[in-house]
Design a protein that fits this description.
This protein has about 625 residues and is α+β, with helices and mostly antiparallel strands. The protein has 13 helices and 19 strands. The N terminus is likely disordered.
Length: about 625
């Protein structure tokens, strides 16, 4: 009873351990992962405004930085490079004139060209435009000239540079005129003007008049040395203001940024005693007040398209978008986190019309809907993983229960086998012992009775030998079954029945419908099939009116061996189970038929070794029909 209670309690213990070791940790870790995912998404939602604000700042810094680099490069360019030509004195004092460096320099990306305005020249010569190296674009040159002429006329010639110079140097007079709606630019000295020192010979060559009062067309080094000695100067000082950016449009609507600066010549003072000297003629252009407007033109469309696209690729995260403010209406709603980006704000660009500034305002946005969708996807994946885990746990639980049931069933079979073997061994051993003692003690003196007792001892010994042989056959078939060979199935069956004495028995009848009948078989296997099936039929059919039929025939071209009885048969639900080892239907404690549960199992094993097909069927009219189909080759 203790063993039975243990078998029934084992599944409960196994299930409890399975729940503690597999189900509970999986549920705990799954819950923790779910909670962590929810916290991560909540943190991402909370951090989204700050991250979008940071991205907007980085976009503005990126764009402004690129423009600042261009401004810094142009700021270091010498003001004399903007002169229409480049003049210098050679060692002999001769004036050499060549093209301006801006005519051959490589134009930076985004720069349409450079310009210079000199109010001292004739009106048609005042404006000079440079487009750098490469092929000339006549249409662009005309477009730039029209743009600059219009802008310079509006912002400069309404109040000439000479009027601007009437105020003290660095005073408010140097501020370019702007519409009254805007505050005037602070004074030059508050705008971080830069002092540029130019060697005197370079300045004289650059500003050398086309024709001096005495008709001389050049200044010699001797004149310059005399001037430097008399005046105590060898350099010319230029005051250069920072670039100021102004938004403009061409006649055909193209947007540009006009970067301009004012360059002022600090006049050289010539004393009264030196005015009659020869070098005075060379220095005459440098003692007058002069001012020029210089600068370059940036392509604003390049900023709005290429530069912003470069910032989008370099700065934005995968889940962020950058669009123009005028196109951001579609990014409305709670699902979007937005931050305005104004890249030109730190550059001090002046827009004549307030609505023009809107074209250079952008919006960095992040779609929270994508975050929610990603959260849903992750939760779906987690749910799918949980479902897989549940299925896996269920399958594992099913397999565990199946294994436990198999173990319990195996234990029960072993118990039945032990009980059956005990029963099978007790009777023959007792009989052998009893008859042996009777013969030893001389209780039987008649020779006939002595022979009878000896026969009984031999029969019981054969019964024990048969039991041992079955156990040995089971092990041999499980480890190394013999190879089948082609032989006559009818002859082998007849020989087994004849050698065992069953052919002459009244309760066994042999029926051979085809002879000879070649089949792939193992002779010892055919013997085991016939003897075990006939023995089973005798055990369960009992004293039936109809004998056990052993039939050998050809069915559908295949050799077939059939054993049929009129016993109770085997239920269809139990036919697979009775082929397993140590399985006997019923209870060993109440069963009257002898056996160990190995007969049908050995039949099944031999059929597998001979590659034959075994079938247990109901016999028409009642009883059991066991059919074995053999292969021909």
């Amino acid at each position: 009873m203790a063993r039975v209670r243990l078998s029934r309690g084992t599944p409960r213990t196994a299930l409890l351990l399975y729940a503690l070791l597999v189900v509970l940790p999986g549920a705990v870790f799954g819950g923790l992962l779910w909670r962590q995912l929810d916290q991560d998404h909540a943190r991402q939602r909370d951090q989204a405004p700050d991250e979008v604000r940071d991205t907007s700042s980085r976009v503005a810094t990126f764009v402004a930085g690129r423009l600042q680099d261009i401004l810094a490069t142009e700021r270091q360019r010498s003001p004399l490079d903007y002169r229409p030509d480049r003049a210098e004195l050679d060692g002999a004092g001769r004036l050499l004139v060549g093209p301006s460096p801006l005519s051959s320099v490589r134009r930076p990306t985004g720069v349409l060209g450079w310009f210079a305005h000199d109010p001292d020249l004739a009106e048609r010569d005042r404006l000079t435009i440079f487009q750098g190296a490469g092929p000339r674009d006549g249409a662009r040159s005309r477009e730039l000239r029209a743009l600059l002429e219009d802008e310079l006329r509006r912002s400069i010639e309404e109040q000439s540079l000479r009027e601007l110079l009437r105020a003290p140097l660095g005073g408010p007079g140097l501020a370019l005129p702007r519409p009254s709606a805007r505050e005037p630019i602070s004074r030059l000295e508050e705008r971080d003007q830069r002092l540029v020192q130019v060697p005197l010979d370079v300045a004289v060559a650059a500003f050398h008049p086309r024709e001096t009062e005495d008709g001389r067309r050049r200044c010699a080094f001797d004149d310059l040395r005399a001037a430097a000695s008399a005046l105590g100067v060898d350099q010319l000082t230029l005051r250069v203001s920072p670039f100021e950016l102004r938004f403009v449009r061409t006649a055909d609507g193209r947007s540009c940024l006009l970067a301009s600066r004012v360059t002022v010549v600090e006049p050289i003072e010539v004393g009264p005693g030196a005015r009659n000297e020869a070098f005075w003629r060379c220095l005459e252009p440098l003692r007058r007040e002069q001012a020029w407007l210089q600068g370059f033109v940036l392509d604003a469309e390049w900023i709005r398209a290429d530069l912003i696209e470069e910032a989008r690729r370099s700065v934005l995260n995968a889940d962020e978008v950058l669009v123009a403010r005028l196109q951001s209406n579609e990014l409305q709603g709670d699902r979007w986190v937005r931050e305005e980006c104004v890249p030109l704000a730190d550059l001090g660009v002046w827009f004549p019309e307030p609505e023009d500034e809107l074209y250079y305002r952008f919006v960095v946005a992040r779609d929270q809907g994508e975050l929610e969708a990603r959260q849903r996807d992750q939760l779906l994946w987690l749910g799918a993983l949980a479902l897989v885990m549940i299925v896996s746990v269920s399958v594992g639980l099913r397999l565990l229960l199946g294994s436990l049931r198999a173990s319990v069933e195996q234990a029960r079979r072993t118990e039945n086998f032990v009980a059956a073997v005990t029963h099978e061994l007790r009777t023959p051993i007792a009989a052998v012992r009893m008859y042996g003692e009777m013969l030893r003690d001389g209780w039987v003196a008649e020779p006939a009775r002595q022979q009878d007792y000896l026969g009984r001892i031999l029969a019981e010994t054969g019964r024990l030998s048969n039991l041992v042989e079955r156990v040995i056959d089971k092990r041999r078939l499980s480890e190394a079954p013999p190879e089948p060979e082609v032989a006559d199935l009818a002859e082998e069956t007849r020989q087994v029945l004849e050698e065992s004495g069953l052919l002459a028995a009244e309760d066994v009848r042999l029926q051979v419908e085809a002879e000879p009948l070649p089949a792939l078989l193992i002779p010892v296997g055919v013997r085991a099939l016939v003897l075990n099936l006939v023995e089973n039929a005798r055990k369960y059919a009992g004293a039936a009116d109809e004998p056990i039929l052993v039939r050998v025939a050809r069915v559908d071209g295949q050799p077939v061996l059939e054993v049929a009885d009129r016993g109770p048969g085997i239920p269809a639900s139990e036919r697979r189970r009775v082929l397993e080892p140590f399985v006997r239907l019923g209870d060993e404690a109440t069963r009257k038929a002898q056996g160990t549960g190995l007969g049908l199992h050995l039949v099944s094993q031999y059929c597998r070794a001979m590659r034959a097909r075994l079938a247990l069927e109901d016999r028409p009219g009642g009883g059991l029909l066991v059919r074995v189909r053999f292969r021909v080759s």
